[in-house]
Amino acid sequence: MLSLRKSPYYAGDTYVYQASARIMRAREIFLITTMNDIEKAEAGYTAKDIELLSELEGVRKRPGMYIGNTNLSGLHHLVWEIVDNAVDEAVNGYGKKIDLTMYKDGSIEVEDEGRGLPVDMHASGVPAAQLIFTTLHSGGKFNSRVYSTSAGLHGVGATVTNALSEWLQVTIYRQGKIYKISFKDGGMLDVPFHVDGDCPMSWHGTTVRFKPDPKIFPNTKFSYDTIAQRLEEKSYLLTGVKFTLKDQISGQSQEFYCQNGLREYCEKLVNGKNKLGDIIDFSDKVNGIQIEVAMCWCLSDYGENILSYANDVRTADGGTHEQGFKTGLTKTINDFALANELIKGNQSIDGVDLREGLTAIISVKIPEDKLQYEGQTKGKLGSPDALPAVSNLVSTRFNYYLNEHNAFAVDLIKKVEASRQAREAARKAREQARSSKKKGPEMILSDKLAPAQSKDYSQNELFIVEGDSAGGSAKSGRDRLHQAILPLRGKPLNTDSVSMDRIIDNVELATIIQTIGAGVGSEFNVDASHYGKIIIMTDADTDGAHIQTLLLTFFYNYMKPLIDRGMVYLALAPLYLVYKKSDPKKGIYCWTDSDREAAKAKLGQGCLVKRYKGLGEMNPDQLEATTMKKATRRLLRVTIEDPVNVEKKISVLMGKDSSIRWDWIKENVTFNDEDAFLEEVKGEAR
Description:
The chain is an alpha+beta fold. It folds into four domains: 4-43; 58-256, Histidine kinase-like ATPase, C-terminal domain (Heat Shock Protein 90, 2-Layer Sandwich); 268-423, Ribosomal Protein S5, domain 2 (2-Layer Sandwich), CATH 3.30.230.10; 438-573 and 637-652, Rossmann fold. Helix 4 runs antiparallel to helix 6. It is globular and about 75 Å long.
């Protein structure tokens, strides 16, 4: 034990004892205070604070757990859950027609020709149809005798749709009878299950009609185009099943029917592109898993476009089937190239180079006992059996195809080698730019970047701003800790069908690549991004819209994981300022025409309206308040809900064939000589 009298801190017994007493007293006070706080906290947290929610209440309390969010994506997820149930019937051989109808009251109806939901009483004492729509983890998807394969896994889809609806009605046609049951106010029983009449014995199927609850969804209006695109996608996956869509509001109607499956799907994706060889497609059953693949390489494409599905549900985040496809593809091309002495024994073909320019679709149908998704939204397949099954099938069939088409195989390996060389050249160019002591054009433009001070990259935001004028205002109005400003000089390069070396040589794009700091193309690593948000901020005019489109095309082709992660945004600058000349500081910013009219009504007579044509017209404080400040700004997150539609739009609007683009413009664009707002102002002046 250390002697106090030998301690260098000794200052006499009295001092030591007093100090010790103070320390002990401080500890005592701390412990007493802490225990009092704990006792108070414990007293305030009792069994009365435990909230027990019913299953339906739980869904309404936390809808994001089940449908991802409550915006338009979540709204349409309600439809997909019911459509997937109808699809499961068709996949298992019951019915070849699925009809959707959008009604004027905002409701939507899904009708199938399946067996019809069970109409008998469940062992729990509740009608089976009622149980399916009111109880989580109920349904026939857990029983492989009922469904050999299905999109459902957790048995929550129909229940979730019911829980998040203002009302829902179910009609069942089965064994010559019509059965009905209806719910309201988030799944509360409205009309009990009952027989509602007779029907021909040949009638069979289920009809579900529901209206989303406005208490849950800010916008309850379904998008015809979004639903049409999803049904078109489903038709490629379900050969021989006809989908129909009718909109009673607009009068639009369409039918979707496909006989050639994934091959036809792939043909649509690569239509009009410079293809290397023909579309390769094959299918088979491996270890109980039905696998279909269609793929094609395009010479003018420099990214990869792989779409995967599990039990006819789009797996946007990939999974074991995608991993198996990539593994089998890379192994096969390496084995073939070595066997035919197209590469040396110490060389190998990298998968990223092989997949450059590849469009591929993978669809697997997995039995219920082997099916594993990650999350209720089924974005990623986790079934381990899918990896070796897909890998083995791809290896076998692709190897056979290469041996039967030697000319194609040689051309493909040449393309792969060209991709490797371009990737190496781009890497060297980036390294040289980083290490160069002399400032070339890229480095000079980089000096315009006003960087964020924080090293917490996930919280940082990069504003890519149109023009130096707006860039100057943005720099003055930004949050210097987390917001960086990069002004653009002119319009970026159109990167559709552009090689990597041209992108690296382009000053604007090279600066963006350098600023984001995560690489580009096959070497892009989203986790290395210096910014958690990339925000495109342009003028509200045609030039601004064009710049947005060019930048989005670049991100889609060469930094797509940014979009997949939801890291790309469009800043919404206000279109109008409504104010009174006597007190301009109390003006109201407006983003839409309806906002403008509401502001005019609020301020009353004598108010003035200023139309903003460009960001540069705003002072730094105005730009900060309306477009940059997190509490008051408006951002649009860029997402890919329908890959077919995105690929088609980019090919048409940004591709080299101007005749296709001109046809689209004539069909979809209405030309006006003047801004409608200017006409309105002239009318008011008169």
